[in-house]
Amino acid sequence: MLADRAKAMQRVCFGAEPSEADLELLGSRERWLVYRDLVRNRLNTVIGVALARTKSAIGEDAFGRAVDEWFDTGSPKTRYLRYVPSELSEFAIPIWQLTETPWVADLAGYEISAWEVRHGPRNPESVGEFAFDKKPVLAAAVKVLRLAYPVHERPTPKKGYEPKPTILCLYRDGNHKAVPQILNPLAADLLEAWRTTDQTVAESVQTVAAAHNTDIGPTFIEKLSTLITHFIQEGILLGGHSPPS
Amino acid sequence: MTRDVAGIGLGLRYDLATELLERQPKSVAWLEIHPENYIDRGGRYQEMLELAREDWPVVTHGLSTCLGSAEPFDASYLKGLGTFLRDLEIPWHSEHLCLGGVDDRFFHDLLPLPFTEESAQMSSQRLIEVRDAIGVPLALENASYYAPQGPDGLAEADFVVEVLQKADAKLLLDVNNIYVNGRNFDFDPKAYIDKIPMERVVQIHVAGHFVRDDGLRIDTHGEPVPDDVYELLDYTLRKTGPVPVLLERDNNVPPLDDLLSEVDELWKIYRNATGIVDAG
After folding, report:
1. Residues of B in contact with A88 (CB under 8 A)
2. Is B223's pLDDT higher than 70?
3. Phi-psi bin for B187: left (phi > 0), alpha (psi -120 to 50), beta?
4. Which CATH number fits domain A135-241: 2.70.50.60, 3.30.565.10, 3.90.930.50, 3.40.50.2000?
5. CA–CA min distance B174, chain A (Å)
6. Which residue in B63, B97, B106 has the most chain A C-beta atoms within 10 A of its own C-beta, making it the best mutation to test that interface?
7. What is the DSSP string of B104-160?
8. Cα A139 to chain center, whole Å?
9. Number of domains chain B is built from
10. Which residue among A5, A39, A120 places its CB closest to the CB of B107?
11. What percent of chain B has pLDDT over 90?
């Protein structure tokens, strides 16, 4: 009985069209449509804040159709309101890749990444000092984005973005904002290696430089030093852990 | 060590945090947070909580572990919630007596339970389960609702009391919710209050609500507290004694001074009703 009512509530709140049978089971057509509005409005609000530029680019109607379709076929699996826009994006970006102008999917991906960085996890509490023979420790809220369009540039051009391959590091600054930083391909690969492998800094530099056919000479060392200093100053690179012996 | 929570508190919300944390108004005696907004989250929210704890005792009020679902709890979430709550050294945690999700999908809103024996039995069992899992005292909160109940159930107050007694639980008594429900469903809020075992009340919520053109009252936490709710609070505090009172304001957040005027009004009622003269 309780389970049947609960499922009817879910269909009324998230279904494309609430059925008269469910509304009759629940007992008050008008009031359960109030609940439908309350539930959808709250979720639409947080989604609209997270993807404000995407919504503006696509238009409210097309954006709303994607959200409605997600409500109907998926709806939030997360208990955290801040993760709702990410779940919607996972569903909607593949649709927008097919239906919208090509840069829109990049814009949505950029916006949702910035949202996730801004609301991302806490940094680890105890981190050792940075050293080349240690495994580097990055901030918890850092992402590398590889885009076909420079959608981080604002305002959005009236005629849309022209193609321009762009690699960004998105990180949370001292004011808790998500900040984009343009990276070259080698720096981006290095950052991703630091996040995804167990190599020390020295090992990852050798691996990535070799993959880019780049000699580790004085010029490279100087640029690497500048890059690492910048990453540390911006809170992207927190320090290092000694590798397990 | 758990810090004493007494007098009038305010919900710590993003929109008012900057000014609140800078000014540290003495009339605000404690703060309430929603743990879902802080668990595993860095950035501004982490900073807000750390700053808040320097100056105020903190109490937690959950949004997603609603007690009315028939499905198993997420054990890993409850474990993490318990760790978070114990680290905060809170005196109690509260959750809503309602339905928050179905089939691993979350409404992100508080949907009503039927006020039946079956529902009371299930909710009380779940309350005990959550309380055991998190390892801190747990209070349930009476919720607002907008859809009429079936003819075969209990009155809302009887339903709440039934769950409290079955689970031997504490109560976060939301007087605005009782007022809203009373106006929407034509019952006397004071008669509801009269049925509550006052020894179980550990905290009170007050808030404003929105009145639609058709007269339906929606518990938005987006309006100033109306006089009728102040009056109901006064009536309640005269029965409970000096139970901590929280002003909830989640939407349409006004300048802090406007909220502090409401806090001052709450202190006046609190002192008059309880005879406490030296708090705040």
Report:
1. none
2. yes
3. beta
4. 3.90.930.50
5. 20
6. B106
7. TEEEEEEEPPP-SHHHHHHHHHHHHHHHHHH-S-EEEE-----SPPPTTS--HHHHH
8. 15
9. 1
10. A39
11. 93
Q: Give the confidence band of B3 by pLDDT, cuts at 50, 70, 90.
A: confident
The SS3 call for residue A169 is strand
Measured between CA atoms, the residue of chain B closest to residue A173 is B43
Break chain A into its structural domains and give their ranges: 2-100, 135-241
pLDDT recorded at residue B71: 86
Compute the distance between CA of residue A165 and CA of residue A162 in angstroms, rounded to an integer: 10
The band of A120, judged by pLDDT with boundaries at 50, 70 and 90, is very high
CA of A1 to nearest chain B CA: how many angstroms apart? 9
Q: Do A6 and B105 touch (CB under 8 A)?
A: no
Collapse the DSSP code of A166 into the 3-class scheme (helix H, G, I; strand E, B; otherwise coil) and give the result: strand
More confident residue, B131 or B277: B131
Cα–Cα distance for residue pair A231/B187, rounded to 1 Å = 62
CA distance B238 to chain A (A): 34
Q: How many beta-carbon pairs under 8 angstroms link A with B?
A: 104
* A176 to B43: CB separation less than 8 angstroms, yes or no: yes
- Report the C-alpha gap between A214 and A211 in whole angstroms: 8
Give the residue from A163, A165, A204, A174 showing the smallest Cα distance to A187. A204
Q: Name the minimum distance, in Å, from the CA of A219 to any CA of chain B.
A: 36
> How many other CB atoms sit within 10 Å of the CB of residue B183?
16
Taking CB atoms and an 8 Å limit, are B109 and A35 in contact across chains?
Answer: yes
Q: Do the beta carbons of residue B119 and residue B166 sit within 8 Å?
A: no
Which residue reads 């009339």 in tokens?
B27
Specify the higher pLDDT residue, A190 or A242.
A190
Q: Do A39 and B40 touch (CB under 8 A)?
A: no
Structural domain range at position B132 = 8-274
Residue A140 has its nearest CB partner, among B37, B42, B68, at B42
What's the confidence (pLDDT) of residue B278?
Answer: 61
- Tokens 């007690």 sit on residue: B67
**Complex confidence, ipTM:** 0.95
Q: Distance between CA B249 and CA B105 in Å, rounded? A: 26
